[in-house]
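lol ok so funny story. i was supposed to be doing the assay writeup but got distracted and ended up predicting the structure for this chain instead. priorities right. anyway since i did it might as well share w the group, maybe its usefull for someone
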Amino acid sequence: MGRTLARGFNIVLAIGALVAVGVGLPPAHAARPIVIGVIAGLSGVNSVVAPAVVQSAALAVDEINAKGGVLGQKIEMATFDDNSGPDGAVKAFNTAIYQRKVNVIIAMETSAARNAGAPIAERAKVPFIYTSFYEGHACGKYLFVNAWVPEQVVPPTINYMDERYKAKRWFAVGSDYAFGRGMIAAAEAFIKQHGGTVVGEEFNPLDQSDWTPILSKVRGAHPDAIIYSTSGGAPNIDLMKQYRAAGFKLPVGSLSIDELTAQKAGQAAQGVYYAADYFTTLDNPENKRFLAAMKRKFGEKLLTPNDLSEPEYDGVYAYAMAVQQAKSTAAEAVIQALPKVAFKGPRGVVQMNKQHHAPLPMYLAQVQADGSSKIIKSYGLVDPGNQCPTLK
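and the output, tada:
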């Protein structure tokens, strides 16, 4: 069963009476909270980054409640652990929807967990905002995505490495599940379309941390560069540490690392290139306010915000804005409003109006010797492409 964090992040602030669908309810109902279900892999492969996701959501809840909540109601956050996998996701979604009675699910999950949980939310008609970058083409009436897809990260990464290193022969490595295979498939298609060759492809099971047999195959294939896509968090670190220990010097592009994971990998990830839509070094007023507020709230316990955690902050705000615009928490009204709201946050303006996905400002970075990420190129707003053509 999904594990609700005991510490929660419940903030009590309710003003006035709830106005639902234009009808004022009696004051006795004013205290009823809007419950946001935050689901993430607090255990398992995503446990490196999942606590940062919870922190971002908690800050957004605090800020919204400090301004009076939504429609005069406070927001409460209920957190569930999906164990980074499908079985845990089924339990977490069922618990969140049928026991905790959440109004919305805003989750950063592995693709395996999302694929297991999304149908539950769809059948229950509960809005589901997915805040994790992923392999693309996940579609549903109640599903919305505010994170990047292959069309937004593969071209910048491959093109830059081709230009910088004349990389034509590539070896692809990934985790053996929907995200790893989906991202590698997108990268390989792009490489071949642009005159390159894929000289090898290998996948490791999600529960396997030993990459040495695969690295031996990489050495034997003599590629110009490596492109990889593991599950977020721990597998990135395991692969890079073993890659460095084996003495490889080839240029590496990642389709799965994030700023926090790179920081934890440290020198092992030095030189890795990756594209993302958020970095702590973004120089805009919203990001500076966000980072200052995170520091005030969490102090020394603050985990580095990154492009797996910051979209959770945006997702909470987008939901609150949709409820405000719909003047209701009714699911049908909220999903009609979600594509219409645009939240200007640390990443810039994000609107899930492209077939329930979002055009995003994209950047290319390289991991430095201390694990920090240095932005080396900006691409402006990048469209997610044709993700869900049946959705308008």
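The radius of gyration is 21 Å. The chain has two domains: 19-148+281-358, 151-276+363-382.
back to the writeup now i swear
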